[in-house]
Amino acid sequence: MKKYFKIQIETASVEDGELMIAELSDAQYYAFEQEQQTVNAYILEEDFDEKKLKEILQTNINFKKEIIVEENWNQQWEQSIEPVVVNNFVAIRPAFHEPIKNVKHDIIITPKMSFGTGHHATTFLMIEMMEKIDLSEKAVLDFGTGTGVLAILAEKCGAAEIIAIDNDEWSINNALENAENNGCKKISIKLGSDLPSSTPADLILANINLNVLIQSATEISKRLKVGSFLLTSGFLFTDVKKMQNIFEEKNVVVKQTKQRGEWAAILFQKGSV
Asked: Residue 111's pLDDT band (boundaries 50, 70, 90)?
């Protein structure tokens, strides 16, 4: 049975907490809960490095740690998670909550240890921007699928084929369960770190951390055909210019940028050579 560390961190403000989450997400922390001046961060026991944590937090920030097991994680979510509603477009809820009225798409997500319930700003931004993209009969690649929520939404929006990949086995199992619970038939969920070399996608979804986006920029651009889109988040608004420069070097240009708190999402489009 896998064990995890729950790290409870005191922060000076909500904004400081969001900056802390961004740094920890680059250090193998899986998921986060944020309150006004507290961040709870979760990491696999074998990935925990207290020295590295102290370097990120610096000496003037207090934290507590405790070990939890998988069952405890699910129980905590069932006791605390509330539905997320993105405009009138999508409601994301655990199965034990009643369906949300007056939304176009109702998605059931059992989050477990995967990142992506809609509560975090980056997932919210991705969903909000997907509303404006025509996915009818399109091919979609969800890179770093987590809970599978974006892949599930892509199918509900009419995509003909969705490939969802993640390098974490726990996320893959979670995404498979969530896809089944939402009656999805067009999603292929795969374990791996590399983008598939199949037919280029009409839309690539990439809600992952900044370092992975930078490392994967060349491969992502190769999977885009002229006119197709890349929708990405997982980075701070202060990193928007860096993202823009990296992808525009590969002829993938910015079409729209959105901000929520400290976080950002960018919609790119592949241009002609």
From this structure: low
Residue 238 φ then ψ, to 5°: -70, -15
CA 215 to mean position of chain CA atoms: 17
Q: Which of 257, 203, 269, 208 is nearest to 233 (CA)?
A: 208
What distance in Å separates the CA atoms of residue 112 and residue 36, rounded to the nearest whole number? 23
Say if CB 223 and CB 230 are below 8 A apart: no
Q: What is the pLDDT of residues 254-263, one digit of tens each?
A: 999 999 988 9
* Domain covering 3-78 in this structure, CATH number: 3.30.70
The residue length of the chain stands at 273
Query: Distances in Å between the alpha carbon of 40 and those of 14, 68, 230?
Result: 13, 12, 30
Residue type, 241: K
Average pLDDT value for residue range 265-270: 97
Tokens of 63: 């934290």
Model pTM score: 0.78
Q: CA 267, 150, 214: angle at the middle one, nearest 5? A: 50
CATH superfamily assigned to domain 116-270: Vaccinia Virus protein VP39 (3.40.50.150)
User: How many whole angstroms separate alpha carbon 227 and alpha carbon 154?
Assistant: 18
Domains of the chain by residue range: 3-78, 116-270
In 3D space, the residue among 46, 18, 49 whose CA is nearest the CA of residue 32 turns out to be 18
In angstroms, what is the C-alpha Rg of the chain?
Answer: 18
Q: How many angstroms separate the CA atoms of 210 and 218, rounded?
A: 14
